[in-house]
């Protein structure tokens, strides 16, 4: 595509002033689609910079706003500012000292010695745009964020590498070797796709317990070392590799391992890249199995640490949303830059 901008902005009409009705319909459809996909993420991003009071405000607002305060002589803490919109003090800007029921005791910053009684219906808060960055900085003070980040990165990276190796070897055997029972093995692999994960959770936990893998990072990594989706995806792609290349390598005295590492893996790079991207997203977002197998908080992943913010009686929504953004950001960056490989890789596995 020589000119992506020109391709994306082309219309059936003549120029910007002569848009066809189908152009308006297409742009409206695309705008609604983009809005539907990205509005929740944008709302989450702005909400992560809101204070607790702003999050509980009704009706909710998109942008983070905070009430302005002022330091008044005779008071230790800054006082919130209000604009009076009714009564004898209409038009004034006063600071609230305290509130009792529907009556607030307020002072004029210019004359702090005189206290005024104002009905709360006769005032409105003075607010301005402000990012509550303390939502993020407090995360590192309240718990060991670096430890949870390392656990997630280690599990994701290690599980992805093991998955690529195991799945690629299984796919190589099922695509390039003729042996008795190959069809049955392939049918069993594909058949496991129909089994819900919740069905195998109990036996998988019992096996992990017998192997002393519970409450360890390896207990999260090993059970996901092979996936039927990865085996099927790589097998379909390896079927497109001509067998003549392998026969020529065998005539040159190449071993099966050398054929696998030097020929099959390099030629299967697009499919492996797709599986790697999918595996990263699967392992990073995995929640149910780590929740079952891990009990020590030092082994928690970011997903489990995020769940720890949900209290029984009180939930700190500002920190929870900030933590959600930090968990979402790495996988969103990976998907944004590498999503084109997913489409091209999956499309290339459909034919021989």
List keywords for this structure.
352 residues, alpha+beta, 6-stranded antiparallel β-sheet, 15 helices
Description:
The chain is elongated. It is built from 15 helices and eight strands. The strands form two sheets. Strands 2, 3, 4, 5, 6 and 7 form a six-stranded antiparallel sheet that branches. The protein has a two-stranded antiparallel sheet with strand order 1-8. Helix 5 packs across helix 9. 57% of the residues lie in helices and 11% in strands.
Question: Secondary-structure map with pairings?
Answer:
Elements: H1 4-8, H2 21-47, H3 52-55, E1 65-67, E2 69-70, E3 79-84, E4 93-100, E5 103-108, E6 111-119, E7 123-125, E8 127-129, H4 134-142, H5 145-176, H6 182-191, H7 197-210, H8 217-221, H9 228-238, H10 243-251, H11 256-267, H12 269-285, H13 288-293, H14 302-308, H15 317-348
Helix pairs in contact: 4-15, 5-9, 5-12, 12-15
Uncertain runs with pLDDT below 50, 5 residues or more? Answer: none
Q: Give the percentage of residues in beta strands.
A: 5-15%
Described by the principal axes of the CA atoms, the overall outline is: elongated
Name the average pLDDT. 82
- The termini sit apart by 26 Å
Oligomeric state of the chains present here = single chain
Largest sheet: 6 strands, antiparallel
Helix content: 55-70%
Number-wise, the strands total: 8
Number of helical stretches of at least 4 residues: 15
Radius of gyration: 30 Å
SSE class: alpha+beta
**H/E series:** HHHEEEEEEEEHHHHHHHHHHHH
């Amino acid at each position: 595509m020589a000119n992506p901008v020109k391709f994306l902005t082309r219309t059936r009409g003549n120029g910007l002033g002569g848009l066809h009705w189908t152009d308006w319909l297409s742009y409206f459809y695309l705008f609604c689609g983009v809005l539907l996909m990205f509005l929740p993420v944008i709302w989450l991003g702005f909400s992560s910079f809101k204070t607790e009071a702003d999050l509980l405000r009704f009706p909710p607002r998109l942008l983070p706003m905070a009430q302005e305060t002022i330091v008044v002589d005779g008071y230790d803490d800054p006082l919130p500012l209000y604009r009076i919109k009714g009564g004898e003090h209409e038009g004034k800007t006063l600071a609230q000292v305290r509130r009792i029921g529907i009556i607030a005791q307020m002072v004029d910053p210019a004359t702090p010695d005189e206290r005024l009684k104002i009905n709360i219906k006769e005032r409105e808060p003075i607010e301005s745009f402000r990012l509550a960055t303390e939502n993020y900085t407090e995360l590192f003070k309240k718990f060991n964020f670096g430890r949870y980040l390392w656990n997630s990165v280690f599990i994701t990276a290690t599980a992805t590498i093991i998955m690529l190796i195991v799945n690629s070897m299984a796919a190589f055997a099922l695509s390039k070797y003729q042996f008795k029972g190959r069809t049955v093995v392939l049918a069993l692999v594909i058949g496991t796709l129909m089994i819900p994960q919740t069905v195998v959770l109990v036996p998988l936990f019992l096996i992990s317990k017998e192997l002393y893998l519970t409450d360890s990072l390896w207990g999260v990594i090993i059970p996901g070392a092979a996936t039927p989706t990865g085996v099927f995806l790589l097998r379909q792609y390896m079927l497109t590799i001509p067998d003549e290349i392998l026969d020529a390598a065998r005539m040159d005295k190449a071993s099966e391992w050398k054929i696998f590492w030097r020929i099959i893996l390099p030629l299967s790079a697009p499919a492996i890249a797709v599986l790697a991207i999918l595996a990263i997203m699967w392992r990073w977002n995995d929640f149910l199995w780590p929740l079952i197998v891990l009990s020590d908080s030092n082994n928690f992943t970011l997903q489990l640490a995020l769940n720890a913010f949900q209290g029984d009686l009180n939930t700190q929504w500002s920190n929870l949303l900030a933590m959600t953004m930090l968990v979402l950001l790495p996988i969103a960056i990976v998907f944004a830059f590498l999503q084109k490989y997913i489409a091209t890789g999956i499309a290339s596995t459909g034919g021989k």
